[in-house]
Structure formats: C-alpha cells, structure tokens
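REQUEST
  id: r-88c1
  op: predict_structure
  target: Alpha-1,6-mannosyl-glycoprotein 2-beta-N-acetylglucosaminyltransferase
  payload:
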Amino acid sequence: MPRLKYASVARVVVILGLFCLWLQIMLSASTGGMYRDGGQDHMIQVQGMLVKTNPIRTEEELMNANDTSEQVLALVPPELHKYLTVHPRNNSGNSTDRIAVKNITEIKQAIKRFNEAQTIYNEDIFGPVQNDTVIIAIQVHTRLTYLRHLIVSLAQAKEIDRTLLIFSHDYYDEEINTLVRSIDFTKVMQIFYPYSIQTHPHEFPGMDPNDCPRDTKFEQAVKLECNNALYPDLHGHYREAKYTQTKHHWWWKANRIFNQLQSTTGHTGYVLFLEEDHYVAEDFLHILSLLKSTADKSCPQCEMLSLGTYLKTYQYHVNGDKRKKNMNLNYIQQVKLANEQRRKKHENNPTWNFQVYPHLYTATQKVEITPWHSSMHNMGFAFNRTVWNHIMKQQSQFCAYDDYNWDYSLLHLSQNMPGREKFKVIVCKGPRVFHIGECGIHHKKSNCNASTVISKVQKLLQNAKPYLYPTRVSAQVTAGGAKHNKKLVKGNGGWGDIRDQELCTNMTKVGRQHRHMIFYA
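RESPONSE
  id: r-88c1
  status: 200
  body:
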C-alpha cells in the first residue's frame, strides 16, 4: 500500500508538472512571438495569403501596459486628454481581428490617393500656408503611445496655430490616421512613404526571398546567386530592410517637402524635423524664433538651428585609468568588481534621470554656435531651402555613403562640400525638444513604460516654467570638441547594396517612378 500511495502521489505530481509546463507554453505563445520592436506577429492578407507584419497595438501595450498613468494625466490639461484616449479594442485571440484588415493592394491605393490629394486639414480655420510658415516635419513609424504625447506637447505650444504639421508615415494604420486627423489646433498634412516594408514585404525595398542573409560570407553568397551577392557593406554584411528604411524615409520626406508639395513650392522658411518619440516645450517656437534672429544678426554662416540635446545624467564612474587598473586584477577579482558595479548601477537607477540645470534656464539663456554634428544635433533641428539647395548639390555624398543612418550620412555630406566649411549650428543649451522613446530599433528594453519617462520630462518643464520665454539669448562660439571635428572616414555600414543607393538617388528626381532593380551575382 505505501508503494501504491507513493506511485499515486508521484503520478499526481507529474500530471501537475506537465499541466504547469503546458500552461507556461500557452502563456508564452500568447505574449511572445516578438517581431522587430517587440510587437506580436500580426497577419494581413496579401494576394490571398496571410503574411506577418509589424503591428502597433501589442508594442504599445508593451511600452505602456497601464495606458497613460494618472501622474502624467494630472499634468495634461483636461481638454487634451482626448489625444491620449485609447478606444476599446477587440481582444480576440485571432490576431487578424485586432484591426481592420487591409490587403497590400488597398494600402498602396490609399497611400497613392492621399499623396496625390495633398490635403491640408484645418486650412479653412487657420489660413493657407505662407512662404515663411514654420513647417514641422514629424517622422512616424508605429509607436502610437509616444505619438499621442508628442501631439499633446505640440497642442500646448504657444503660436502652434501658425505652423503646418506634416506627419510622414512609413506604416499605414487607421488608428494612427484617426489620431492625426483629430488634431484641431493647427494645420495638418499627412504624407506616406510609398516604398515601405509594409507595402513591399517580399520584394525590394523590403526583404526579397532571394536576398542574401545578413551574415552570409561573400564567397557563399556568390555561389547562392542571391540578388545582392556582389554588394555587401564595408563590414561584409548584407542589407537589412528594417534598418535601411529609416534613412530612405527621412530622405524621401525631405525631398517631398522641399521639392514636390504644391503648398511648399515657394516656401523659404524653416522646416523643423521631429520624430514620433519627441516631446516639445511650450515655448519651443519662441526659442526657434530667437535662434533665427541670432543667426541673422551674429552668424550668417549658421545653417542649422537645434532645439534638442541629449540631457541624460548618466554617471560614468569608470574612467580610462580605472579600466587599465582593473585589467591587472585576476579573473575572480574582475568578476566581483563587475558584479558590484552592476549592483550599484541597479540601485542608483540612473536611466532618464533628467535634472533642471539653473544655468541652462534663466532670463537670458545661452546658445552655442558650433560645427553641426549628427549625434549631438540631430534632434529638433531645423534648416531652410537655402541649406537644402546645398544638400541637393551633394546628394551623392548622402546616397552613396555606406551608413544606414540618415544623420551620419548628412554629416558626411557636410564634411565633404567642396569649397566651403561644414554646416554650423546654433544650439539651445536649455533644450526645448526631448527624446522620450525608450524602445525602438536601437533600444530594446524589457521595461518600456512610456509614462515613466514622460512624467519626468513633464516635471522638468514644470520646474523650468519660470524661465521659459526668455527675452534674449546669449551666444557663445565654440570650435567643437575632438568628436565634432573628427572627419568621418568609414560609415557604420548597412548601406552597401546598390539598390538602396539607386532608390535614394531616384527620390530626388521629381515624377520619376521607382524602378524594380534586381542584381544577380
């Protein structure tokens, strides 16, 4: 009997264990399957087949599982809560029911229709676009939560009703469209990048089934006769569509605004470049005007204006001398030291520890005149048609440079303009544009709660409120550090494929249709 009882108990334990394992697998299946930036696989219909795409809903849930926190809402005027309202969703287990399914043909037709119409919403209320109207170009992908808060911050900005917001999308989604078209505080236009991965999932500029896998060796790629075998990047890797798309999109957007829209044909004012995960201070247009006045009076050679800077107060305690000292420790000591540093970092939790620096926000605020550098001045920066004409003269420097980043490509162009110095920028030391996105192509954190970051930025701006709207700025000319003046020799790669270079070049030719280019080894 004892053995029988023991066997019965053992069976129960085994059954319970198997049940728990099955439950865990099912839960993992329902929350896993991450694609790209963390969203679940989503299916849309393409020529009768279901194919995977990158959704926005599950990614939004990952970034902000509790939607907008009460702490954030408390600092948002009640009349603007409508931009943060998430409408009830169908939580059906069938992923195809989560949004209204559109096949790729329908999406392409909708994109073509909207791009041809060039509709400006609210123009009847706020008047037509003038040649000196500030245009705010916002690059949008799929991070809806961040976009909501960017819109809220724009809505609170003084003189925003005198601007034109151009939202440039590389992902067609009705929920994003509905949000953008609900904006009622200024003029709005939507443009849609027509060569996206969404609309070309199985052909270039997406990933063709016969494209070479990223890490394929050159000799092996030639034997495989994959499409781009002869065109690896400078690091020996082959293209990845999800990375090349961002540079293509930025370049198409800039060409579209300066060269192709009817409403901007004679535009001579500034175009301010933002992204969906930026957040602006209420006086950002006031500061932009001050920077322009400063450029006109004190720095006619300054082509760029910059409102953003990366103000993260990370504390790096380990300098070069300490690293050298650590190398002399034995393996056990190095492991212990690394664990201790990791523990301290976790306790201090330095990420996004924004602080208000009194010397940055005062009645007379400081601005810096310095060489433009991509990693320092690529957020909330603006330039006009004169600068764009300089860029167009050197477009080959942008399109042929083996770097999948648009900002480093622009820096390379700036450093290689014949007969003239590289671009100079007037940058606001007290930033008016902040980066709130913790998740995206380059940042994949397990805790992507947008409210945590947004509330810190809101509190920073609340504390700085007495110092907003300064009457003047004090300019200081600097030569820039070694990093600013180091000439780029090699890019970061990811842009060796000749098809990417040709598509980029074709975007500058108004009216020319994209050719389907296939290159075989």
